[in-house]
């Protein structure tokens, strides 16, 4: 199928100017949104644009406006992890996309999981291809956000940065949410409460483990800990480890719903009933929580709102506004049959 008439030349800015009876400079100001053009001249130019089917050259327009109208979302994970069955990533992307689409901005999705890919993203952003960068799912003291910010690129990250950088971030009350979960288990009479913590190079893993420990100290119970990586498989393996280490445990707080689903599988295989023998509480309140057997008690974090808030903050920052360094969203306990 032909996408254009053979031999027909693409309309130019000069042809728009000629059609409207103005100079090329005036036509350029109208096309690039300058407010300094009289309304009747603007109308004539826009009518010529419509009549001729003129499409501005985005590269040239960017040189004039110093804007690309594109925003990057960098996920510091492999493509295999991003496109796995973990609902966190598509939900974050959906929230970001909603806000950027409403603002007329293009989302550029990038994945980083090696030094080479870090360098590519850094050079892409520094090269002026995007107006700002959001970074999510960071591991350790990732230097990328700080490097970009020092180069004058607007940056907002998901999760309190572990490296002490002053880059603005959007996070949830991870430690408070963990304390809610453990408090619920203590209040229901559970005595030996274990946890499957998330990776300790990620702020969510660190803070949820910190909240678990703090609540147990207040209730005079000892910590029983295994570490996972937020995947279903790691939840299964960690639960098997916990049962081997302490067969008498009667509850487990798991730092993600996906790991909790894996933990419940290990409990079934070991002949332990949920919640009769072992109560289980997850973290996220993704769709998974409603379809486990039994349905999962969990801590709700507003993943969609994390994405939306990151995008709004980035657009404000890219627009020259000053924004607060930390934006913290609340968590809440959602009680279902597993605890």
TrEMBL record:
Pfam families (alphabetical): LacI, Peripla_BP_3
Region (Disordered): 1-27
GO molecular function, one term: transcription cis-regulatory region binding
Domain of life of the native organism: Bacteria
Family annotation (SUPFAM superfamilies): lambda repressor-like DNA-binding domains, Periplasmic binding protein-like I
InterPro entries registered for this protein in UniProt: HTH_LacI, LacI/GalR-like_sensor, Lambda_DNA-bd_dom_sf, Peripla_BP_I
Keywords from the UniProt entry: DNA-binding, Transcription, Transcription regulation
HTH lacI-type domain residues: 11-65
Record protein name field: LacI family transcriptional regulator
Biological source species: Planosporangium mesophilum
